[in-house]
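Per reviewer request, we include the raw input and output of the structure prediction for the construct analysed in the revised manuscript.
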Amino acid sequence: MEDARALAREALSRLRGSNPDYAIEACDHALGLLLPAGPSDALSDVLRWKGSVLRDRGSHSAAAELYSQSLAVADSLGYQPGRAHALNCLGTVAHFRGDLLAAERWYGESARLAHRLGDRRLSGMVQQNLGVLADVQGRTDEAIAHFRLALVAFEQEEQRDAALWVLNNLGVLYTREGATARALDTLDRARDLACELKDVVSEGTVEENRSALFVEMGRLEAAELAAAHAFGIAEQRSDNTRRAAALRALARVTRARDPESAQALTLLNRAAALADLTEDALLRVEVLSDFGDACRDCGELARARECWRRALDLARLAGFAGVIAGLQTRLRRPSAEETEAVAEATA
């Protein structure tokens, strides 16, 4: 059992690195040692850790199955820390899929249990996840409050790996609020920390968000470099979710240079196809929304409206209040055919 734990902990240290295949192999080796011995705390942990490797590669269904198995083992033993962590992990999968009610339920139960156990790291992780949840539902002040609580918890416990996740999310929020100087400082801190910790997954995600910030600042060369670096990381890890997100970032740079760029349409078409292979509901909404905007700018209005309708349907299903209003505004604008008909009727 100790050998299995050592193997799995090595896998855990590499799960956010450039070689997720190794992490999966190490977890499988550990599971091969643990499963014949029956339920154990170690088995619950390793099942969860392997689920997180798969989740970070965009394999959310497989991750959810492992998290459920981890929870079942923890419950059979009365292993409360394992239960608390498995509940939080199940919440992340529900969140990715756009089932926000289920995510909030899982997170809430995990938070209560973590508080009873005095697990400050897990409490911070749940606060961070609740912040992301509040943000996509348009509750910005609540999101900031959750992020700050999480950051305090992680800094007090000197959990730098977890602190960088919060810094990344705060950077995204500051970018959207137009606080570019604060956003740049926060995202730079997150990137430096990710590089120091060799957390390649987080490094790629932060680079996507730095690219978006640089576009807002008009620094298009820096934006392109950050997006290209994010795409390189996603390619190295064979991660379709992050590939789609990086292609979206590259398309954003291309459109900033030329709103009518056909290359942007090509990039977003690839991003949409990859996003459809994932279970990341918010990413699919964001890619479709951008695709619609690019089609509109290129004069393909019918195609634009179809993209926006699909994005709106997904956003409504998931409860992404933060993006619904913008999509509704786009769709309320009259199409070219409708404008022409009105002009002819009033001529």
